[in-house]
Amino acid sequence: MESEKDLIGELQALEEEARRDVEAAEDPMELEGVRVRFLGRKEGRVSGILRRLGELPDHLRPSVGQEANRVKGVLQDLLAERERVLEREDGSGAGGEVDLTLPGRHAWIGGRHPVTRVVDEICEIFSSLGFTRARGPEAENEWYNFVALNTPLDHPAADEQDTLYLEGGYLLRSHTSPVQVRTMEQYQPPVRIVVPGMVYRRDTYDATHAPAFAQIEGLAVDEGITFVDFKATLAEFSRRFWGPGTQVRFRPSFFPFTEPSAEVDVKRLLVQPDGSRRESDWIEIMGAGMVDPAVLENAGYDSERYTGFAFGMGPGRIAMLKYGIPDIRHLYEGDVRFHRQFRGP
Ligand code: PHE
């Protein structure tokens, strides 16, 4: 004949055992096994004790019944809690089941930004012409951004209306030309560099202006570099970039740091969808010129001995022309519907 102590002790041992089994269950199937073993209608060990309550002597029934119901309640809570944990780990929601009929999630294929494409293409062409890549700081001072480039501080470009000034005599470079001087200070001729980088201007953000945009600077300095080298190099670049049949035109212009200065225009030969050819309008693609001797001197070069040419272009603007992008803001707003068009390598 079982005593009250024996039965209550057995229930508590069952509770401990069930607690361990619930914790050890690794998936919903195992957990269901635990539930059946302890609370199953037919073979559950706790259910078994509850079922046999009626056979117990009157004085044992209330205390054993109470304890058995307590254990049953505790186990139900533990099972429910463990079920939630397993579902969460499984990640597939209700019941831990995976719905294999759902459509798959496609993988996104990234691509290079259109401006990056143009920068890389331009740098590759110049690399094949013997130019290397150089870089310089985006936070500059007035010496490198203006004065060393023969641009007095009362020049309109240096005005606070156009240039973003930082504290302590620094500013955000308004062009990549300061890297001309920084590079010449560091290296002796011959120098042949292209300098891609971001520049900053106090412009309103609209379809054709951005306050931060990319530029590529170029500089070649050596003994005996002439205007012919200047024209031939930039014409060769233009034809390689814009395609054979491209016409190139040098229009007189002015920059404080080049003399003479030019703006370079191209007229492209476009192939129409029906195969026929059409000439584009003249489009301006860069500012350029022979390096002003004052700039060579400011960088510590002997301007009697060395000459050179420099150029600067905007790969953002070039990307717009090349890909037919109507609004510069598309380049900066990260809308995937726009960027999807430039997928792939
Ligand atoms: N720095 C000029 C600009 O930002 C471009 C340029 C570079 C012109 C080099 C001549 C030579 O407009």
Write the topology of this structure.
Layout: H1 4-24, H2 28-39, H3 45-51, H4 61-90, H5 114-128, E1 132-133, E2 139-141, H6 142-145, E3 170-172, H7 178-186, E4 191-200, E5 212-223, H8 227-242, E6 247-255, E7 258-271, E8 277-291, H9 293-298, E9 306-313, H10 315-323, H11 336-339
Parallel strand pairs: 1-4
Antiparallel strand pairs: 2-3, 4-5, 5-9, 6-7, 7-8, 8-9
Helix pairs in contact: 1-2, 1-4, 2-4, 3-4, 5-10
The chain binds phenylalanine.
Phenylalanine binds at residues 175, 177, 217, 255, 258, 287-289, 310-312.
Description:
The mean pLDDT is about 90. It contains 11 helices and 9 strands. Helices cover about 40% and strands about 20% of the residues. With about 350 residues, the protein is of the alpha+beta class. The strands form 2 sheets. A 7-stranded mixed beta sheet has the order 1-4-5-9-8-7-6, with helices on both faces. The site of phenylalanine has 11 residues, from strand 8 and strand 9.
Kindly report how far apart the N and C termini lie: 83 Å
**Which CATH first-tier class of the largest domain would you pick?**
Alpha Beta
Poorly predicted runs: none
CATH fold name of the largest domain: BirA Bifunctional Protein, domain 2
The tally of domains stands at 2
Instruction: Tally the beta strands.
Output: 9
What class, by secondary structure content? alpha+beta
The amount of beta strand, in percent, is: 15-25%
